[in-house]
Amino acid sequence: MEFNASIKYLKGVGEKRAAMLAKLGIFTLWDLLTFYPRIYEDWSKISSISDAPMNETVCIKAIVGTRCREHKIRKGMTLYKTEVTDGETLLDITFFNNKYAAEKLEQGKEYLFLGKITGKGYYKSMVSPEFEEYDGSKKMRPIYPQTAGLNSRAIEKLVKTAFSVCDSFSDPLPEDIRNNYCLMGIKQALHNIHFPESEDLLSEARRRLIFEELFLLELGLMRLKSKNRRSTAAEMPNDCTGEFMSLLPFELTKAQKRAISQAAEDMKKNVPMNRLLQGDVGSGKTAVSAALIYNCAKNGFQSALMAPTEVLAAQHYNTLAKMFENTDINIGLLTGSTPTAEKKKTKAALKSGEISLVIGTHALIQKDVEFKNLGLAVTDEQHRFGVNQRGSLSSKGINPHTLVMSATPIPRTLALIIYGDLDLSILDEMPKGRQKTETYLVSTEIRERAYGYVKKHLCEGRQGYIVCSLVAENEASELTAATELYKDLADGFFKGFSVGLLHGKMKPAEKKAVMDSFSSGETQLLVSTTVIEVGIDVPNAVIMVIENAERFGLSQLHQLRGRIGRGTEKSTCIMISDARNDVTSQRLKILASTTDGFKIADEDLKLRGPGDFFGSRQHGLPELKIADMMTDGEAIRETHAAASELLKKNPALTGEEYVLLRNAVNRLFSGGISMN
Fold first, then answer.
1. CA Rg value for the chain
2. Is 543 contained in some domain?
């Protein structure tokens, strides 16, 4: 059978089992061969019956001494017993209602038994062990993820069948790569990942398969980057960023200046810039983007900035309008709630080139939005857009430069994979005058004291947030919870104060009215759901209470906390939680101990794993089957270097020895990348 053959044609599968396997993501023979065990049972360490520890899973080798005896205990309960010996000690084997298993044991034959030994003195027994006839080999048995109707042993049997029917195992890694990195061949690696002959061979098989998976991924991402660089972009020879910085009433940080310089250099070239600007909350990404937008306008090109929400788009519009008020840069705003007449006017001004910068939401990527000469496409909070949306904005121009801004700090090794097609600029320092936000974790018993602390700040002319968590699984219940909390607080503890409500079910115009009132200082306290998580900037807001903090992820809590501490005043975040779960408590304590977003990202990744932390499917990247972006940092660096070196020597991977590698990369990215 060929690797791409449908799994239903494998002996022992058929239509019914194929449907079960589909639930595990197994559709072809290759899917089955790369459906890796999650753990292994070690049948290689054989104990004698007398030396085996009690109540621990052990493997013993013994000969069946008696025929199986049947004992009916009561209706519906039958015991099947036999006696085995390792030559020194006797052991009773018992099965409950499993005549099939008991009858497979033949008197006089030697078997391996895996299970827990119990008993006292000379009497020892093992209940319902797994067993197999001893063939002289010592082995580890795979344990696979299961689904209803298909257990691990059934999958193991199918994998063995798959190996027996494969026509050949063509290796996608060329011989020179395997030799340079001391990697075993694909057939040996696959066999030892499923049926390890030793722990050392299992380790080598894992290393080979992890290398291959990451190597193919790196090659594909580098080809994407290379493809972008083969395009011709608008050259912006005049670096006007210094001129813009001189207009600002504040000094930029060294990190901001470095990021601006890196991007300005990119924009001088005739290949499109594709750069990720990664910075913690409040690190000044907007000012960096403003310098590049100014540079773009002064070189005669337009810019577009796409934000994930209308609230954030409006805030960017207000912030950048102030930054550009003494310049000749015209700004437009285009969102879903922009009045029809205003939309028409803005679109016409974009098409004619009258507008230098347009700020908006996904409304910017609609078909009828046309630019005269788009030179720079900026997307904010990248993880909220799929790669297709980012690409749709860039397609509005002829290979415009692209800047992606993310406020979710990502460990460097993870960023190599997640943003492999982008160059990286990091803002790793805060603007001068910013004070560290103090964070406290308190129990619900002192909620009223926390509210009293909020009231004290409101009386001093400051503003604050109370964040309501998701208490159920749908938006309707979220709305109910937020509304009830708002009413309780506005009519109770904070009666006499101006209290506002913000949640995701509000219409854009309603959200804008609430935020305008809060930004102006008219609203003193804002009760909100996580809709404030992204980018809201009100410097006078210095106090935040987060209800049921255990219901939020670590990075999400850090983003929420980033809504305060945006001025020069001391700020305080109070997380209320009665969480007793160890992992949850650890997560909240991490947040209380540091404001370093990169450290928090590392800890969040350790606690949650990369799948939850940053679902790769959301980014249009292939799913990793064996590599782990948290624990395989060294392999990521090694394969990154290997892929880079290979593409320098052979950019198109030409030559007969690279045909399989080229095809493997294309398959991994479902044909979305051409290695030709």
1. 31
2. yes
